[in-house]
Design brief:
This protein is α/β, with parallel strands linked by helices. The protein contains eleven helices and 14 strands. Strands 6-7-8-3-9-10 form a six-stranded mixed β-sheet, with helices on both faces. The N terminus is likely disordered.
Length: about 325
């Protein structure tokens, strides 16, 4: 696999369909860090299983690491790593031995498997735990072992299905520290699913949202939030009619206007809240409306999903 940032593609999907996935087109550039989001049942894990040759597509095609998943699955598996949602390590062997065995399964000679096991343990700070069984490790340590198992054969492309689910904030931060090191040190292409929207927002260069088996949004987190959700202004005002009228004149969208005691809580969506709020307050004052509170908020990826589908990302698909 050639890592050419402008031209190389680590995988390409064309109208791929199976079960919950209805047909998606997707190109992923080598060396990129991509988050794949969607509610439960949207097709995230199904897509990953197809790309990793664990589930054959019923139509379309997918080329991963330069090889077709349907016609040359062995070549795909030799060039990718896959960390599923469940633990990859067994319970009865030491962590270091698990890594050596994984290397042998990928065709490494025993000496090479031992050397490579030491390398990935160094990379993921697992050396102190090499003689321990996986069941005695903390959640974060065990998840790092799962990642190490996916890296034993030096893949240029690593799929991570919910890599930090079930971990506490400290454990999630530790796992992400090591994931990002892979990218920085080796240029590994990383494609991950997550339920933690903050991870996708802060870690990924590109966010792809799938719903109902189809991709409904694709871009940077900042672009998706700016174009599809927008900033939000929330004010408490004595005259909701004036608040709506002024917002319409500004070209802003009124999201809601709910009674609160003697006043109204009005939410308005704008492109740049920090710039729009002073103008909005001056216009309300000129209209004779009394504002008792005002605040702004940046959108989240959940706001993007809500705008696209009418429901929150954590709602059922």
């Amino acid at each position: 696999m050639i890592h050419t940032r402008r031209l190389a593609r680590d995988f390409t999907i064309k109208k791929q369909t199976v079960h919950a996935v209805r047909g998606i087109d997707l190109d992923i550039e080598a060396g990129s860090l991509v988050a794949f989001l969607g509610p439960n049942g949207a097709g995230k894990s199904t897509t990953l299983r197809m790309l990793t040759t664990l589930l054959p597509p019923t139509s379309g095609s997918a080329v991963v690491a330069g090889h077709d998943v349907a016609t040359d699955p062995a070549a795909v598996r030799a060039r990718i790593g896959y960390v599923g949602q469940g633990s990859s390590a067994g319970e009865n062997f030491r962590a270091g031995d698990e890594l050596v065995t994984q290397g042998l399964a990928y065709g490494l000679r025993r000496a090479d498997a031992r050397r490579r096991a030491q390398e990935v343990m160094d990379l993921l700070d697992l050396v102190p735990f090499a003689s321990r069984k996986p069941g005695t490790l903390s959640g974060g340590q065990r998840r790092r072992l799962d990642i190490a198992l996916g890296l034993i054969h030096r893949p240029g492309l690593l799929f991570l299905d919910e890599p930090t689910t079930g971990l506490d904030p400290t454990g999630r931060a530790e796992v992400w520290q090591h994931i990002l090191r892979l990218r920085a040190d080796f240029g590994t292409t990383l494609f991950f699913t997550t339920h933690y929207l903050a991870e996708a927002d802060t870690m990924a260069e590109r966010v792809i949202i799938i719903d109902g088996g189809r991709i409904i949004a694709d871009g940077t987190a900042a672009k998706l939030k700016g174009e599809l959700a927008g900033d939000r202004i929330t004010i408490t005002v004595d005259d909701a009619v004036a608040a709506r009228t002024v917002a319409d004149r500004m070209g802003a969208e009124v999201i809601s206007a709910e009674p609160v005691a003697d006043d109204h809580l009005v939410q308005v969506r704008v492109a740049h809240a920090d710039r729009a709020l002073p103008d909005y307050l001056r216009a309300l004052d000129a209209a004779g409306a009394k504002v008792t509170s005002a605040e702004t908020a940046r959108p989240t990826l959940d706001d993007v999903f809500l705008t696209l589908t009418g429901r929150a990302l954590d709602d059922p698909a």
